[in-house]
Specification:
Length: about 260
């Protein structure tokens, strides 16, 4: 099965049998980065983004990744369970992205109840995740917070996520940056910035809302860990600044709020 799926990566338009998709799902959190990253996720990402899966297979994947608790599965355990959650988050993100892509055969293809679970779990996942491992010498990329950020971005940008719930996203991000006491070193802070600037660029989030939130956030620095928390948040804000500024989209109120965020 491994060799067959490896060959499909090199093919231009491969098709997939049910047992192949089941094998990919069974190895979503495989301990080997060669299997998990290079084989399993590559096949899933291509299958969804390039529409290599059928609509029935798309539905099957969505149902299976949710079947045993989804992102809540073994949420208090780290190591191998984190790999499963982290890469499920990436599959969630790809499913939601295809569901919103009007050019995709999977556009609005998720069943309403499945879409709602994906959105709800995606919104709250980073509030529950504890494993901050970026790269592991044993497992390769774990990156739960980066993958969770990718998912949260898709959640906020999804048409079914109402604008009047954006305050929940601010709450989740604010609590996250105050909870994590290590300095992110594998671009997690930059990936979390996408949760802010992508919805702005897509018209789902107003810059004055972000500016008001930043002005209300307080990071008292009393211990070394407090500086790491502040530094993570400031790095996130600077990425928001850069991404909006290079698109000539940065408004004065948000620009000033980020520039004024000091310790």
């Amino acid at each position: 099965m491994y060799q067959e799926l490896l060959r499909k990566i090199a093919e231009e338009k491969p098709s997939y049998h049910e047992e192949e998709i089941q094998w990919l799902l069974d190895h979503l959190g495989d301990s080997s980065p060669e299997i998990r990253d290079d084989l399993v996720f590559t096949n899933f990402a291509r299958g969804i983004q390039e529409e290599l899966f059928t609509q029935e297979q798309f539905h099957f994947i969505a149902e299976v990744v949710l079947a045993d608790g989804g992102l809540n599965k073994e949420i208090d355990k780290v190591g191998l369970p984190t790999l499963e959650r982290s890469f499920r988050a990436l599959i969630y993100a790809n499913l939601l992205s295809a569901d919103t892509n009007q050019q995709s055969i999977f556009y609005q293809g998720l069943k309403a109840e499945i879409r709602n679970v994906l959105l709800n779990q995606g919104l709250h996942y980073l509030s529950k995740e504890k494993d901050t491992t970026g790269f592991s010498s044993q497992y390769g990329w774990v990156h739960a917070f980066a993958h969770g950020a990718d998912l949260l971005t898709e959640v906020v940008c999804h048409p079914d996520f109402p604008k009047n719930r954006v305050h929940e996203v601010f709450d989740i991000l604010g609590q996250l940056f105050k909870r994590i006491s290590i300095r992110f070193t594998d671009d997690e802070d930059w990936r979390l910035a996408r949760v802010i600037y992508e919805p702005i660029l897509q018209g789902k989030l107003e810059q004055e809302q972000v500016a008001s939130w930043i002005k209300a956030v307080d990071f008292p620095i009393e211990e070394r860990e407090d500086f790491y928390k502040f530094s993570n948040f400031r790095s996130c804000l600077l990425e928001v600044y850069v991404q909006l500024d290079q698109r000539n989209s940065l408004q004065d109120d948000l620009k000033e709020a980020i520039q004024s965020f000091q310790y």
